[in-house]
Write the structure tokens for this entry.
Amino acid sequence: MSPLQPSSPPASAPTAELGRTLTRFVHPLALLALMWVIRAADFVLPGTFNTYGIRSWDVTSVFGLVLAPLLHSGWGHLIANSVPLLVLGLLVAAEGARRFWLVTALIALVGGVGTWLVNLPGTVTVGASVLVFGYFGYLLVRAFVVRSMAHRIGYAVVAVVVVMVFGASMLTGVLPLYPGISWQAHLFGAVGGGLAAVWLGRGDNRRLARSRAQQARRDDPYGLRELGLE
């Protein structure tokens, strides 16, 4: 009989939780990496992928709602979007990977449809700035829709910092000031982010109310507090 080897100690719960927490930040990094891979492929291969962007008033460009944020007109365009996308995306991803992708999908949908409707017919729009402005709108509105005071303070601090860093460029970006830049994508991306914050915030508030009600029933199963008999 061979002697038993001592088993390695299991990972501690705090270490496992830290690993799960850090994993959520991989998702915005993966999204940005995908954009760089696509730009490199577009640079090397003949033709251009930008024809798959949002072509306003063209019903055949429906896939542009998904593809347009991943495409860029050049390296400068991608580089300009990369830093704000990563910073704001990481802030959104702090709430979880599922929340990050839900917010991203809603921004792409609302921003894409708005751009498709408002831009001049036949105009092709590409770029991740719709997501940048969408994340900004989400982080800004999030502080006003959550009921938990602790979360509200935390989100308010994040919103203030985001406004201080990106506020000026965001404000000018939603106005038709620069030719060749789609203010429509910026504006409707921000609207999409705000709508995502309201929709998801309502769900969070309902879950918080249910959790508090369940805790109250556990603490006072017979309702003695309401009768003043506790």
